[in-house]
């Protein structure tokens, strides 16, 4: 009798194990597992899209910064994001803005006649010269600043608060209209006319 009770118990245990194994491998839990996998994939795509969208915004801000240095006023850029973007679209947008930022940076760092501006600065004053009526490294007076760097004057103050590149680009804008006439003595000493 003991053997039959033991055998029945053993059969019940084996039957319980096999039912647990069949439900684990069976189809009842597969649908939630597939749904969980799909949710994880969509969360990963959303994180990737957010990462690349943020990278595009940073590159657009860098582009705006360098174009402001060159033009003396901020450009009218628009970050075009209509609705949700796929990670691929966001990555392509980030790459496009990165190329634009790189090109704007190269332009800003290579103004025309850079050596002439460095030489004129050597004869004129410190980039941070705060003494009125002439400010900055190219000794720009107030009317000069308002003519060739009005936005910078309004938002950053006089030229001694501008970066050296912004001061040089204000000089370039003046040079394109008037030549080196505002710095006649220094330009003559530097051998540029």
Structure description:
With 193 residues, the chain is mostly helical. It folds into two domains: 42-74 and 81-109, no CATH class; 114-190, Lysozyme (Orthogonal Bundle), CATH 1.10.530.10. It contains eight helices and no strands. The longest helix is centred in the first third of the chain and has 42 residues, at 30-71. It starts with a helix and ends with a helix. 25% of the residues are buried.
Topology:
Blueprint: H1 2-25, H2 30-71, H3 87-109, H4 114-124, H5 142-148, H6 150-156, H7 164-178, H8 184-190
Helix pairs in contact: 2-3, 2-7, 4-8, 5-6, 5-7
Brief write-up:
This protein is mainly α and 193 residues long.
Q: Which secondary-structure class do the elements indicate?
A: mainly alpha
How much of the sequence lies in strands comes to under 5%
Shape: rod-shaped
Distance between the termini: 120 Å
Descriptive labels:
193 residues, mainly alpha, Lysozyme
